[in-house]
């Protein structure tokens, strides 16, 4: 059995954890100021909601082909906080139903995809680890960064769900 098989975390396990974090970030945005959802880090970058939608889409663009399924989407065409939250909930339900065993053929897969205007043909592992996961985290990080830049009270614990800091802690005061 190849080494990768022993080290593999099924895509759904990784993505479900961070989709839960994305759900919490979007709720923090809604509770703070829903207008933050339309903000951007830079004028030529997508706004927070589009970054969230793209991150959500990457979980399906990754998990479906690696599980031998057609890629699905739960986007409804609207770009509102409630529509993206609904898309996120439907995606979580769908991914939760894919058995880990469905990812057992990643070693044998070749995935054809596009990256911007580039056509890519990647092995299953390269597609998962070298392309899809970094792209998911890029867009997920943009949601966090836009929210943080807009003043939404979020920190590293909100991003990964693991870190904990005492009330009032600040890295700026520690330097």
Protein architecture, described:
The protein has 175 residues and is mainly alpha-helical. The protein has 7 helices and 2 strands. It has a two-stranded antiparallel sheet with strand order 1-2. Strand 1 (110-115) and strand 2 form a beta hairpin. Helix 3 runs parallel beside helix 4.
What is the secondary structure topology, with strand pairs?
Elements: H1 3-7, H2 11-32, H3 48-66, H4 81-96, E1 110-115, E2 118-123, H5 124-149, H6 156-160, H7 171-174
Antiparallel strand pairs: 1-2
Helix pairs in contact: 2-3, 2-4, 2-5, 3-4, 3-5
Morphology: globular
Strand content: 5-15%
Computed CA radius of gyration, to the nearest angstrom: 17 Å
Strand order of the largest sheet: 1-2
Class inferred from helices and paired strands: mainly alpha
Helical residues, percent? 55-70%
* Largest sheet properties: 2 strands, antiparallel
Task: Report the strand count.
Answer: 2
- Overall average residue pLDDT: 93
Order of helices and strands: HHHHEEHHH
Unreliable stretches: none
DSSP summary: helix tally: 7
In whole angstroms, how far apart are the ends?
48 Å
Sum this structure up briefly.
The protein is mainly alpha-helical and about 180 residues long. The protein contains 7 helices and 2 strands.
Which structural traits does this protein have?
175 residues, mainly alpha, 7 helices
């Amino acid at each position: 059995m190849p080494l990768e098989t022993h080290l593999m975390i099924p895509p759904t396990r990784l993505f479900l954890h961070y989709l839960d974090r994305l759900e919490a970030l979007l709720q923090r945005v809604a509770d703070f100021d829903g207008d933050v959802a339309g903000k951007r880090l830079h004028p030529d970058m997508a706004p927070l909601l589009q970054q969230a939608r793209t991150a959500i889409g990457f979980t399906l663009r990754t998990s479906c082909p690696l599980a031998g399924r057609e890629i699905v989407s739960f986007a409804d065409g609207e770009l509102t906080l409630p529509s993206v939250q609904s898309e996120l909930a439907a995606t979580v339900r769908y991914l939760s139903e894919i058995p880990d065993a469905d990812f057992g053929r990643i070693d044998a897969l070749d995935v054809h995809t596009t990256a911007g205007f580039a056509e890519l043909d990647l092995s299953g592992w390269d597609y998962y680890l070298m392309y899809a996961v970094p792209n998911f985290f890029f867009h997920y990080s943009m949601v966090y960064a836009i929210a943080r830049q807009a003043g939404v009270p979020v920190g590293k614990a909100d991003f990964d769900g693991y870190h904990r800091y005492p009330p009032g802690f600040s890295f700026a005061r520690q330097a």
